[in-house]
Amino acid sequence: MTTVMNRRDLEFLLFEWLDVASLTESPHFAEHSPETFTALLELSEDLAETYFAPHNRLGDTDEPRIADDGTVTLPAETGAALAAFAKADLLAAQFDGSVGGMQLPLSVFQACMAFFQAANTATTGYAFLTIAAANLLCAHGSPEQVDAWVRPMLTGETFGTMCLSEPEAGSSLADVTTRATRSADGSYRVVGTKMWISAGDHELGNIVHLVLARTPGAPAGVKGLSLVAVPKYLPDGRRNDVVLMSLNHKTGTRGTTNAVLAFGDGTHAPTPEPGAVGYLVGEERRGLAQMFHMMNEARIGVGLVAAAVGQAGYRKALEYATVRTQGRSLTNRDPASPPVPLTDHPDVRRMLLAQKAYVEGGLALVLRCAMLVDRLRVVEDDQQRRRLGLLLDLLTPIAKSWPSQWCLEANSLAIQVHGGYGYSRDFDVEQHWRDDRLNPIHEGTHGIQALDLLGRKVTADGAFAELTAAIRATVAAAERLDDLQEYAEALDDVLMHLGHVTSLITEPEHATGGLANAALYLEAAGHVVVAWIWLELVVAAHGQEGRFYDGKRAAAQYFFRHELPKVSAPLDLLASHDRTALDLDPRCL
Amino acid sequence: MTTVMNRRDLEFLLFEWLDVASLTESPHFAEHSPETFTALLELSEDLAETYFAPHNRLGDTDEPRIADDGTVTLPAETGAALAAFAKADLLAAQFDGSVGGMQLPLSVFQACMAFFQAANTATTGYAFLTIAAANLLCAHGSPEQVDAWVRPMLTGETFGTMCLSEPEAGSSLADVTTRATRSADGSYRVVGTKMWISAGDHELGNIVHLVLARTPGAPAGVKGLSLVAVPKYLPDGRRNDVVLMSLNHKTGTRGTTNAVLAFGDGTHAPTPEPGAVGYLVGEERRGLAQMFHMMNEARIGVGLVAAAVGQAGYRKALEYATVRTQGRSLTNRDPASPPVPLTDHPDVRRMLLAQKAYVEGGLALVLRCAMLVDRLRVVEDDQQRRRLGLLLDLLTPIAKSWPSQWCLEANSLAIQVHGGYGYSRDFDVEQHWRDDRLNPIHEGTHGIQALDLLGRKVTADGAFAELTAAIRATVAAAERLDDLQEYAEALDDVLMHLGHVTSLITEPEHATGGLANAALYLEAAGHVVVAWIWLELVVAAHGQEGRFYDGKRAAAQYFFRHELPKVSAPLDLLASHDRTALDLDPRCL
């Protein structure tokens, strides 16, 4: 059996391309070395294969359910896997030493996470959300809150959630109605219903829910939202008034509980005042900005999930295509000759190469963003920090969306390579496809990411220039290498096209029309960015011999010839200020 | 609640576009009238909504299972629905009066089937396969075989299957190993294992399996295959030696039994000679050609399934987007204003319009092909028949593949429109998406269809010229209509591009390279063909007022502006004789 993630590829990305070793020159990461990074990758691979991969299907078939006593039942393997993850200190890995963390670069940590997400994204979801919650509390919580909640989160005793959506407010956070009222003792009483809460209930430990709520007198819209931490169990051990109303049953990632939670419906009222007891994080009415702190890293994390699940499918399809024989080559009509491996069929090779280009390109993009987070942490020059921040902000919606779209396509191709077997639940690839379908929806839908990119990120002063400069630098490096000039030229051309279209559609008189086609812009910009990433990868691989590097060159060739030319049509459409969707009367549909 | 299929659209396609009424001028269809066609559409809608749609989810959750006595258990609703279908004479509808049929045009019958496939493709699968088997027996079976099996099939007492694949031979029929040996009494004894047999076992009635098998001394490869009918119960009522080995559990279309069947393993041996008793259909070694008779209509039928399931998802997404409110328009920043319906968001309208263009375009393509079958039946001029046959042959792999690819994408967009709700199993769209994922796999995978189109169909003498002539005729009609000239010109240009590329890549020295990228050719040709279909539809709608026709114009505008330009890049790639996949060493993957 193949492993679910290619460690060689991660090492190439981290050490040969991103040069994470250079981070250890800064005081913040000085306690690390390439050897500790490598050891953590090996440990992660081992834990992922031992504790996470084996129950991936079980988590799908034995969905979380509500037992007679109202508690949520999970397979024992889920808890055991998360305990092993915690015991290896991986929950603490990316956090500062001051809170008990390992102070690991995010790029290295995300590479470690890739093993777990590929092995079992549903079980890893509990860790993912806890890390995100701890991250937010570290940034905006008081020292007491950090001590009370972050420390037990990093040891696996307490888990975290993000409670944003409500039954009537999914993408529209402006319409959140959950209320948080300040009590005499300075704590808050929270009343409302939250929907789609991943890891929303379980018996793995205490849970601290980070809840977006509205305080009395707060303005309407997102500016009136505050962030309140609501633990399932209060500091004195009593149950808080957070009640599991029901579990949502999804098409994939079934192993992650997804809950409707009622806050303060009176079932477990801990105080005479109605409401679940909560504690304000930071200041009132700063909730959305604080939540976005978490959301930005979470978006990169979602991109990683998509790429990792895509990779798991790709590797299984590749293994299957290598051992499964079927038919004969196009030029051999002799039925008496033995059947050939599926990889002998060019169309199968094309499907595998497409998967490789999508999943390895997506993974590289995500790690590139994580490396920007790391560099932002260690860079000392303000101007440089500002520039890195602009680039990271611009790339974040792409790092979330591009893998969510194309690694899902990779999962579909992995099914196709398997033929009928791929459609059966005896093979893993159909589950990977269902699991990966979540990623264009949560943490901001594809359409929301598109509005973020075109409506905010590319219009930020200097942001697009930063992207252009970064891509041009790679183009310049590639132009000096004989066999990469074709790609350098193609990327330079399409970058110019993208820049031209960006200017056109962000002009004030065209802005609304442009936003109507923002998804097309997101997708075109994503392909340009991933072409850039592929060019970076083959520049890094230049002069290196062997199959691993030949594979990178083949995938880059696929991307530049088969994929990048796809962007011309949508860019031309955007430049035409097409109003097909904008002007449509929906009553004609 | 919305209905699953748009009857108004089917009536437009049949009467206003295809002019099925003209078929009744021929003796073969003379007993019908537009009124009987309309009555059948209404009946089909009623039966589909009453008997098929209500248990669509039940068929998914209560999968067929093997009971303790070895029989296959299905929900009672499945049998009741099929009984209602049979009672309405729909199993017999497309067959000649001489065998008890209704002698209905295939185009009208497929339109009827669209309701059932949209309502519940898994339950309809049992009827679909029975009709296909009866069709094949009518074409190639003896009068006695027709009497023995086709007549009870048309009344719903007997069901049919196609047994092609084996565990080691899915796409490669040349490697079929099941053996059929002639017995002294002229019947055959069949021994072997067949895999992926849809509707392969159940208790709904007798089952006649149409089995591809190899007779002693037959040559290797597909030329050695014979077609043998193997009933589950013999004419004397005894059990034949066809044994259910296991059920396959799929990601979708779970309600259709999918079986591994052992023929002649001795469990129910009816005769001293080993093997299941079978009866040769037609002559020995003609099995594949005979099976393809069935396969061609089945491929059109698969395209219909894809389009119908896509339509079900589209209509549910449209209804949801109309009633669900969320957020505010892009230009309204006032959070105190009420939320707007999802259809007020241009990106949602774009996703709905894309779905409409895919599912209505796919449906129209399928009905166009069915109409070609009808015209082939009534045309008297040999030359004309030959030309229609060439066009139908060329369109068949596209009619199978294009809806399978793009209506699946429509189903994914239907999930996206629903947001988190779309990912939950409380809504139907995730099931439609899983169900529709089957269609690029069965009845010849996407890659197999591509090889058929490029390797056989477009190279058939005069075939591409027929397509060109048909498209040019539509272009000429559109050029005379002011507001369609833009589309006419665009289609003419891209047709020229397609023709040029077709010549280039079918030149002998490039043929193997071209076949390596056959899937790209299939997809590009598919988009050109569907653009032609959309131009036909707006020509038919020209001068007509009202929202229905405006909707057709909007979808055509979407297709011509957003979709058709996508074909330039793959056509250019094909013209470059790209060898990326062809030359790839799979050990680099």
Describe the structure concisely for a colleague.
With 589 residues, chain A is an alpha+beta fold. In chain A, 54% of the residues lie in helices and 10% in strands. The model of chain A has no long low-confidence stretch (mean pLDDT 96).
Characterization of this structure:
Two copies of one chain form a homodimer. The first copy, chain A, is an alpha+beta fold. Chain A folds into three domains: 7-154, Orthogonal Bundle (Butyryl-Coa Dehydrogenase, subunit A, domain 1), CATH 1.10.540; 160-285, Butyryl-CoA Dehydrogenase, subunit A, domain 2 (Beta Barrel), CATH 2.40.110; 445-589. Helices cover 54% and strands 10% of the residues of chain A. The first copy, chain A, contains 18 helices and ten strands. In chain A, α8 (346-378) crosses α17 (547-563). Chains A, B: Residues 468-585 form the Acetyl-CoA dehydrogenase-like C-terminal domain. Chains A, B: Its cofactor is FAD. Chains A, B: Keywords: FAD, Flavoprotein, Oxidoreductase.
